[in-house]
Design brief:
Blueprint lengths: L2 H46 L3 H24 L5 E3 L2 E3 L4 E3 L7 H13 L4 H32 L4 H29 L2 H8 L1
Antiparallel strand pairs: 1-2, 2-3
Helix pairs in contact: 1-3, 2-4, 3-4, 3-5, 4-5
Length: about 200
Amino acid sequence: MKAGPQKKKSHQAPEGAAARARSWLVAKGPVLNFGLKFGALMALFYAVSLVPFFDRLLYVYLAANARLSGAILNWFGQASHVSEVTIRSARFAISVRRGCDAIEPAWFFCAAVLSFPAPWARKIPGLLAGAALILVMNLARIVSLFLIGVYSPRFFSVAHLEIWPVLFILAAILFWAIWIKWSRRHEPMQEHAAA
């Protein structure tokens, strides 16, 4: 007689665990969905960045950054000259290399937007605006680093290796949070209108 109830309890335990697991998955589903999509998109970026063709495209982009930054520096009276990816003046020279391109933080922002549940009509403007802001911010980084190299060279390494990388991470997260707020601002009115 004792064997019957014990079997019943052991039979119910897995069902209870399965129900709890299903309940947990339902509750955490949106977060898991976002995390999996975001992780996959970031992995895709790193996989693509290993392809040799990516380096050729990146070099063209880096040279364009150097030319634009050189033009801005000349507007500030720096008398700089640009040769491929190097900006040089009589007092300082800087090369725009891989890692100084803001592609990674821009993709980080884009992956977050693409992974978030929102209509494409809101994703596309967010992707364009956020990525453009981050890429323009990169020009500010190059110009500021050149000026720091000219006027305060002892702060160059700190600005280059510590301050600007943190600013890019914070900017990507901040732009994403702003986009979420913008993306969600019309939802209550739409739900009310549908009801």
